[in-house]
Amino acid sequence: MKKKIPVIKQEGIKDCGAACLLSIIRYYGGDISLEKLRELTKTTKIGTTAYHIIRASEKLEFSSKGIKCKSLNDLKNKINVPFIAHLVINKSYKHYVVVYDLNYKKNIVTIMDPNSGVKKLTFDEFNKMWSKVIITLYPTKKIPIYKTNKSVNNLIKYLILNNKKVFVEIILLSLFITMFNIINSYYFKIIVDDIVVSSINNFYIISFVFIILILLKSLSEYFRNQLILYSNQKIDFQLFTKTFNHVINLPYDYFKNKTTGEILSRISDLNHIKDAINKIIVTIFVDLLLILISSTILLTINKDLFLITIIIFILYLIVALIFSPIYKNLINLSQEKNAQINSKLIESINSFETIKSMNLQNNVINKIENQYVDNLYVENKVNTYHNIQQTIKDLIGGIGLFMILFIGYLKVMNGVLSVGDLITYNSLLIYFLTPIKNILELEPLIRYALSSFKRINELYEIDNEKLEIDNKYIEKRIIGNIKYKDFNYSINDRDLILNKINLNIEKGNKVMIVGNSGCGKSTLLKSLLKYYKIKRDKIFIDDKDINDYNTKQLRENITYVSQNETVFTDSIFNNIVLNRKIDYDKFLKFVKITEVDKICNDRYLGYDTLLEENGFNVSGGERNRIILCRALINSANIILLDEALNEIDVNMERRILKRIFKDMKDKTIIVVSHRLENMDLYDKVINVENGSIKNVIERKDK
Question: Can you tell me whether residue 544 is helix, strand or coil?
Fold first, then answer.
C-alpha cells in the first residue's frame, strides 16, 4: 500500500525548497516547522540552493546527494523515490518539486508541487521543465518529530484564562437569553391549549409576564453584546502587543530575509484568531447547551417529528464535511495571495520615485491588477462555495420544516398532537437547528483561524534575540578598542563575504573604510552589533570577546547609522531627541556641529518643523544631517557611520567631520564611504576588496 503524499504548500516563491524537504520529512514519519526549515536551508528572499537543501537534510538524519542526469531513464532501478527535482519553468522561473512516482510503462511522473499540490505529468511535459538535476534523500535512521514552539498555544491559553471572568459572564447572560427564548416559545401553546378555555384575566396576566420576559431578554442581550465588545478589544490589545513585541525583538536576519508584506500579513492574521476565540467560546458553550435543552423538549413533544429533525441535522453535517477540505485549501491559498499583494503594494509605494522617474506606472498597475484579480478569483471561489453550501442547507431546512408541518398536521387531525404542541415544536425547532447551523458555519472562521494560527506559530518558531543573557559586563562602559582576529563571515555557509579579517582599531581612532559595493564593508560594521552569529575569539571589544557582552549593553554603547535610516513623521526636534532626556545645551551643540541649525533657521517653525513621511519635505542631504545629529547625541564611545553622509556635499561633509573629530577626540569613529576627497582627515584608511583587507594606510603625521 502506497503512503499518502504529504502536500506542503509554499507561502511565497522562495519557499519551494523548504516545502519539498518538509514533504519528504513527513513522508518518512518525521516533522518540523516550515520556518525552522527556512532557517536550516538558508532561505532568503530569492530562495535557496541545492547545496543548502542537502546540508539541511544531513542535519535531519538524511543521506543526501545532488546528481546531474541525462534523462529519466537513467534513474530506472537506480534511484528510489521520493527525491527532489529542480525545474526551470518558462525558461526563467527556478522551482523545486518532489517526485513521488515514476511509471515507466505509462511514462507518467507523479510530483508534489509546493505551488499547486499533487500532479501527474507525462515524461515529455516533465522533461521540458526539468534541469536534469535531482537531490536524493535517504533516511539514515528514524526521522524524529521536532517539537514546535508552544508560544502561540500558551498565548491563547493566557488570553482565555485572563478573560475567563468576562467569558463566564457572557455565557451566563447567553444562558438567560436561551431560557427566555425557550419560555417564550410556550406562549402560543398556553394561549391555544389553555387560555382559550380559561378567562380573559388569565390571558392578560400571562401576556404581561411574557412582555416582562421579553424586556429582560432584550436587556440581557444588550449587556452581553457590551461584554463581547469589551472582551474583543481586550483580546485584540493583548494579542497585538504580545505578538508585536515578539516581532520587534526578532533577529536581524529575519527582517533581512522577509518582505514587509509577509511580516504585516502575519500581524493582520491576528484578527482571525481574535474573532475565533470570542465566537468559538460563546458559540460552543451556548449553542451546545441550547441544542441539548431544545432537543430534550422536542423529543418529549413528539418522537416522530424529532426523528425528522435528527435527519435534518445529519444532512447538515454531511454537507459540512463535504465542503470542509474545499474551504481548507482555498482559505490557505487566499491568505498566501493576500500576503503577496501586501508585499507588492508596500514595494510599489516605497518605490514611487523610481516608478515616476522611469514612467513605470502602467507596468506597476498591470502587475498589481493581475495579482489582485488572482486574489479576487480565490475569494470569489470561497464565497461561491459558501453560497452553494448555504443554499443546500436552506433547501434541507425548508424541506425538513415542510415535512414536520405536514406530518404534524396529520397527527393533529388524528388527535395524536395538539395544535399548541405543533406550534411550540415549530417555535423550538429554531433553537435546535439555528445553533447547529451556527456551529457548522464556524467552519470558514475556524479554517481562517487555523491557517492564521499556523502562520503566526511559524513566527514564534524564531527565537527572539537574547538581549540580556549575560550580566557579566553590564555595568562597565565600553571604551572603544576593537580587534578582528581571522574573522570570516558567510551568509550561506558557502560563499565568504568577509575572509580572514585581521584589524586593530584603538580607542579614539578615526577610521575610513573604502571599497566597491558588496565587498563586505557594511557586514564588517554590523558584526560589531551582533547582528550575526559570531564565533568565539574572532572579534574583541576592549580585549573582551564580543560574545561575552550583553547585547543590549553593546548596542547602547555603539551607535550605528546606515544609509537606509529613516526619519519619523514628527518635528525635527523629536526626530533628534527620540523621547530621550537630553540637555537642551547638548542638543544645540550637536545641531550646530551637524549644521542642522541651518536647516531650521530657514524655516518658520524652526526645530518644531514637522517632517513628512520619510522626510519627504527635506532634501537627502538635510535628512542625512538630521539622522547624523540623532546618532551623535547618543554619546556612545563607538560610532559607526555606514554611507551615512553620502547625500551631503563634499565640502559640507568636510566641515562636519572636522567638527565631529575635534569634539569627539576620545571616541572611536568608523566611516564607510565611497568618497576619497576627505580621506586625509582620518587616522586610518582601510581598503576592502572582495571581502579581504587589501591595505591599510595610517596617517601618523596627523
Answer: strand
